[in-house]
Inverse folding.
């Protein structure tokens, strides 16, 4: 297969890291250009190879979130995805502040991980839906009751339909199939939705969508 997605896998547990690498290589979609086990190694490999994606653990030596934040400055074209066992709210929020494009739990199926990485490469963002719900529930107590989504953001019926499906963790491709639109049209709707919601990526839009369902 040509035009494979270049990726670096960073985890300080070699056995787990090798398993992820094998999964990615066997999918046929990825070219694993390097492996690393710490922050210093990850940054060095990123600058050397400038991969499309970097998949890294939150709790690796030097800190995955700290690594992501540094890469956002030194290698902004590299899309960072956290692959971790941590479901802690502060880790999720810190990863988003560090401009990670995805936050994936290590219990994810191999095929799902491949799909998520391909979607992020193509411009999407991802956060495990249950983690997005937890963030919303934690913040909701401190918020005054807002206007309805229709009043506050002026979303069309179609935009709200697409946003509801995004809130369920569906990709653009899955949404397109379900609402009988082309994937390109769904991406156009997503651009409009993010503009109206005043958010910059799908992760933030998904969190906003969960908030709307609580109103």
């Amino acid at each position: 297969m040509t035009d494979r997605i270049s990726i670096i896998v960073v985890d300080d547990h070699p056995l787990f890291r090798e398993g992820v690498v094998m999964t990615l290589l066997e999918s046929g979609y990825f070219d694993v250009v390097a492996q690393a086990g710490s922050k210093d190694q990850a940054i060095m490999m990123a600058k050397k190879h400038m991969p499309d994606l970097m998949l890294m653990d939150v709790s690796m030596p030097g800190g995955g979130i700290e690594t992501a934040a540094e890469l956002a400055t030194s290698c902004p074209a590299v899309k960072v995805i956290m692959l971790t066992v941590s479901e802690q709210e502060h880790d999720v929020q810190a990863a988003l502040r560090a401009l990670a494009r995805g936050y994936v739990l290590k219990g994810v199926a191999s095929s799902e991980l491949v799909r998520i990485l391909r979607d992020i490469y193509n411009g999407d963002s991802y956060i495990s839906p249950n983690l997005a719900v937890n963030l919303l529930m934690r913040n909701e107590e401190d918020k005054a009751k807002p206007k309805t989504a229709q009043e506050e953001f002026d979303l069309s019926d179609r935009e709200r339909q697409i946003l509801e499906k995004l809130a369920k963790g569906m990709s653009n491709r899955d949404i397109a199939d379900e609402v009988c639109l082309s994937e390109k049209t769904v991406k156009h709707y997503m651009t409009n939705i993010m503009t109206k919601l005043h958010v910059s990526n799908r992760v933030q839009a998904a969190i906003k969508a969960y908030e709307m369902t609580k109103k």
Remarks:
- The CA atoms of residues 119 and 172 lie 9 Å apart.
- The domain at 5-127 is CATH 3.40.50.2300 (Rossmann fold).
- The chain has two domains: 5-127, 143-213.
- The radius of gyration is 18 Å.
